[in-house]
Every structure is written in structure tokens, then in C-alpha cells.
Write a structure and sequence with these properties.
Strand content of chain A: over 45%
Low-confidence stretches of chain B: none
Low-confidence stretches of chain A: none
Distance between the termini of chain B: 31 Å
Radius of gyration of chain A: 13 Å
Distance between the termini of chain A: 37 Å
Number of strands of chain B: 11
Helix content of chain A: under 10%
Number of helices of chain A: 0
Largest sheet of chain A: 5 strands, mixed
Mean pLDDT of chain A: 92
Oligomer: heterodimer
Largest interface: A-B, 20 and 27 residues
Structural class of chain A: mainly beta
Number of strands of chain A: 9
Chain lengths: 111, 114
């Protein structure tokens, strides 16, 4: 699986958009970008995934650059409950269990 | 509620004790996983089961013994653990281990070994 680079931590004001970047410059053509988050002392939760097109669901939007070397997860209106560690994972579509969870980005949403 | 339930939520055990962690999924999935998350470390995949058969063991010490009696249940039997085994143990499931499915995690068991 391709290696990813994420900032260690970020702050965001409540109600504002949170934009979490991820660099994956060695991504292969058949690798997808997945995002999970982990709220303190709970299991990770799937957020969204994409291959090359931008994706949106009820939780977030995923913007993937045209060269696919980086992506941004967008939480449009962050709430205090969005405070968590966010993991960007790049992997082929199979072998879900072998997803490599790195250190992620700790997002703190402040009132 | 993710559809994956882990019990107990917290466990304290001595190094000579034997205990078991339980995981149950109500999603109709065929693959189940055990992960370990030590303090300030990334998740580590321990075991993978697909259709009740173990398909991966990531060099886990024998003091951890998994059991998968059916596709809905997964156990992790613990014996003669060490203090460094203290961690959050997470169970996850997916449709199968070769499919294009995302992982669903339980809330984990926070284990403390004294």
C-alpha cells in the first residue's frame, strides 16, 4: 500500500469547514483513498473513499487532485463531536483488513 | 452502533490469569479481524478470519489465541500476558477479506495487565 503523510494535528472552529489534507505521492493506479476517524477510546469509523473523482456523502466530501498525489477530506460544518483522529489510507480495493492505519491527524474542534 | 459488539468494554487481569475477549457482528459479514492499539501507536493487525478460517496471523505471540466458531463470532483467548500487552483490542468485520468492503469496528476492549 502507498505511504501517506498527514499533519499531526489541526484545529477548527465549531461551525466552520474542516479541511484535512493527505499526501500520497506514490499512489498506484489501482489504489483507492480511504478515510476513517477514531474518536477517543472507540474503534475507527469509516467516512468515505474514492479513486479519482470527488466524492460526497452525508458525513464529508473527498477531493482528490487530478494527479491523485494528494487529497483533502472536508467536514463542511464541524461540530465538537467531530473531534477525533482522522486516518487517510491508500490501498487496493481488496484486503480491507490490511489497511495501514498510520498516526493520522488529530482534529480538535473548538467552540 | 456499528453492528459490531465487543465485550467486556474494560478488563483488568493479572499475568497468571486466563480471560477471553468476545466479538459479535450482526452485519452478515464473512471476515473478522483482531487489531491491537497500544498507547500512542498505530493500529496493528493481529489476526484475520475469512469464512471461519484463519487466513492471517501477524506473528502474534502464542499467549494470544483466537477462535472463530462461526462467521458472526470471534474470540481472543488470553493467558500469561505481560504488562506490555496492555492496550485497546479492537474487533472489525467486512464482507470478506478479498472484497471491496470497508471495515466496521467495535468499540474495543481496554485491557490492563498488572
Amino acid at each position: 500500500d502507498a505511504k501517506t503523510t498527514q499533519p499531526t494535528s489541526m484545529d477548527c472552529a465549531e461551525g466552520r469547514a474542516a479541511n484535512l489534507p493527505c499526501n500520497h505521492s506514490t499512489i498506484s493506479g489501482n489504489e483507492y483513498v480511504y478515510w476513517y476517524r477514531q474518536i477517543h477510546s472507540q474503534g475507527p469509523q469509516y467516512i468515505i473513499h474514492g479513486l479519482k473523482n470527488n466524492e460526497t456523502n452525508e458525513m464529508a466530501s473527498l477531493i482528490i487532485t487530478e494527479d491523485r498525489k494528494s487529497s483533502t477530506l472536508i467536514l463542511p460544518h464541524a461540530t465538537l463531536r467531530d473531534t477525533a483522529v482522522y486516518y487517510c489510507i491508500v490501498r487496493v480495493h481488496t484486503n480491507a483488513g490490511k489497511s495501514t492505519f498510520g498516526d493520522g491527524t488529530t482534529l480538535t474542534v473548538k467552540p | 452502533e456499528t453492528g459490531v459488539t465487543q465485550t467486556p468494554r474494560h478488563l483488568v487481569m493479572g499475568m497468571t490469569n486466563k480471560k477471553s475477549l468476545k466479538c459479535e457482528q450482526h452485519l452478515g459479514h464473512n471476515a473478522m479481524y483482531w487489531y491491537k492499539q497500544s498507547a500512542k501507536k498505530p493500529l496493528e493487525l493481529m489476526f484475520v478470519y475469512n469464512f471461519k478460517e484463519q487466513t492471517e496471523n501477524n506473528s502474534v505471540p502464542s499467549r494470544f489465541s483466537p477462535e472463530c466458531p462461526n462467521s458472526s463470532h470471534l474470540f481472543l483467548h488470553l493467558h500469561t500476558l505481560q504488562p506490555e500487552d496492555s492496550a485497546l483490542y479492537l474487533c472489525a468485520s467486512s464482507q470478506d477479506d478479498q472484497g471491496r468492503e470497508k471495515l466496521f469496528f467495535g468499540s474495543g476492549t481496554q485491557l490492563s495487565v498488572l
